[in-house]
Design brief:
Pfam families: Peptidase_C14, TPR_16. With 455 residues, the chain is an alpha/beta fold. It contains 19 helices and nine strands. Strands 2-1-3-7-8-9 form a six-stranded mixed beta sheet, sandwiched between helices. A three-stranded antiparallel beta sheet has the order 4-5-6. Helix 6 links the parallel strand 7 and strand 8. The termini are far apart.
Length: 455
């Protein structure tokens, strides 16, 4: 009896030890999503389709069963995730790659479908898909190893709508035996361009092909490669609780092409110079008319001239697209219907400041703060007004009060840095932190007529 028990115990130990030590023979399941065409964004994310295809092909070569999807609506994304969960076998390696827009809300990261309708912060959890919940479900379904590769640390139009947001992505709260890699640091965003492929994915693919290294080391190398190639301007975030041995590549079939990897030279320190970024031009009437969100809101307003909500929303979209005169007209109409709407007053303040009406803007911001003294967005907007009026001490106070309420506001940090510099200080720390969170912040302020150079 004792001998039989010892044999059974030995067998259980062998089985559990094999599962804990390696995952070479486990099923490998991947869901690859590339969301490039968001109607609310000004242009298609050109690199997303290419990157998603390249990642899917590389994963297939590594033995993954891959479901690649593009431009998913909320319903389609829910269905794709459901199929993904259903295919996870106990002990499997489950991987999700998402390229598109994501947003942080209440210290969680949400992946956004292309039809997300986000006007206020609560809409984020309604229309987005929480990364923490995705990883938890992968774990519940029995995945031994969970991997999330997220190339979505972009400044997106949804964030600008309610302005009271935390830039970049939040840390993932993940189950054990999980790897998570973001394309940028927590709370930071990468510059949005119109390139064919992203540097982050190029480094990721190179390291996934490398033989004889663990998946964790491959992602560490990816992070280091991006940091070196960008001179530390982009620093991916990696989180690992991996205890099981796993590699993306097979030693026999994945030769590493080190010779093809560009050599990165550390740039020599340069003198600080004041550069005036080129502000983005405002869209013309035809471009605005073709915008699907504006068109939909315009149809609602035509059907009901008293639709204050649609007026306010269309004003927000116009302001985001720098069509400030049209934005002010809509905010005027919204305020006629709801004269004590602090958010509408704040947005009209912001738009008036951008169009060169600082006194009208100041009146709007003051009234907004009388109605809602804790409205950090109005403090930020009034900081801009005071900055444009040359009232640097007042601007610093407004921005500081706004930062106390929202420490992750790149706008408030950048504005306070400019005001400090104009007051004889340096403002370097605030400006550098703002740029690390939002690489386009200087260009955004240039659109308001404010630059880092002396006025």
């Amino acid at each position: 009896m004792r001998a039989a028990f010892m044999l059974l115990l030995a067998g259980l130990v062998a089985l559990s030890g094999g599962a804990a030590c390696h995952a070479a023979d486990a099923a490998k399941i991947a869901l690859v999503i590339g969301n490039a065409k968001y109607p609310d964004n000004e242009f298609v994310l050109a690199e997303v389709a290419n990157d998603a295809q390249d990642v899917a092909e590389e994963l297939k070569r590594g033995g993954f069963v891959v479901d690649r999807q593009s431009n998913l609506t909320g319903d389609a994304m829910r269905q794709a995730l459901g199929r993904f969960y259903d295919r996870i076998e106990r002990g499997a390696v489950a991987l999700i790659f998402f390229d598109g827009f994501a947003i942080q809300s209440n210290r969680q990261t949400y992946l956004l479908p292309v039809d997300a309708q986000i006007w206020t912060e609560p809409d984020v959890s309604r229309d987005g898909f929480g990364l923490d919940a995705i990883l938890a479900e992968m774990n519940t379904r029995g995945a031994a190893i969970k991997i999330a590769l997220i190339d979505a640390s972009r400044r997106n139009p949804f964030e600008r709508r309610f302005r009271r947001y935390s830039a970049g992505l939040a840390p993932a709260i993940a189950p054990s035996n999980t790897l998570v890699l973001y394309s940028a640091a927590l709370g930071a965003v990468t510059a949005t361009g119109k390139t064919d492929r992203s540097l982050f994915v190029a480094e990721l693919l190179r390291e996934m092909r490398a033989p004889n290294i663990s998946a964790e080391q491959a992602l560490t190398n990816t992070k280091n490669g991006v940091v070196a190639a960008t001179g530390r301007e982009q620093v991916p975030w990696l989180s690992s609780s991996l205890t099981t041995e796993f590699s993306f590549a097979s030693p026999a079939t994945r030769p590493r092409d080190d010779a093809a990897k560009p050599q990165v030279q550390t740039p020599e320190p340069q003198k600080q110079v004041c550069e005036v970024p080129q502000a983005e031009p405002a869209p013309n009437a035809d471009e605005l008319a073709r915008d699907p969100v504006i068109a939909d809101l315009s149809r609602r307003i035509t059907a009901n001239a008293n639709d204050v909500t649609s007026r306010y929303k269309r004003g927000q979209v116009y302001a985001i697209k720098r069509a400030y005169t049209l934005a002010i007209q809509d905010f005027d109409a919204a305020l006629r219907g709801a004269p004590k709407d602090a958010e509408a007053l704040n947005n009209r303040c912001w738009s008036r400041a951008a169009t060169g009406d600082p006194q009208g803007a100041l009146a709007d911001c003051n009234l907004a703060l009388q109605i809602n003294p804790g409205l950090s967005d109005a403090l930020d907007s009034r900081g801009l007004v005071n900055l444009k009026l040359g009232r640097n001490a007042e601007a610093i106070k407004d921005y500081t009060d706004a930062i106390q309420r929202n420490p992750r506001s790149s706008s408030s940090l950048f504005g306070r840095g400019i005001a400090a510099r104009r007051s004889g200080g340096d403002g370097v720390t605030d400006i550098a932190q703002a740029k690390s969170m939002n690489p386009n912040i200087a260009k955004e302020f240039a659109g308001y007529g404010v630059t880092e150079c002396a006025p």
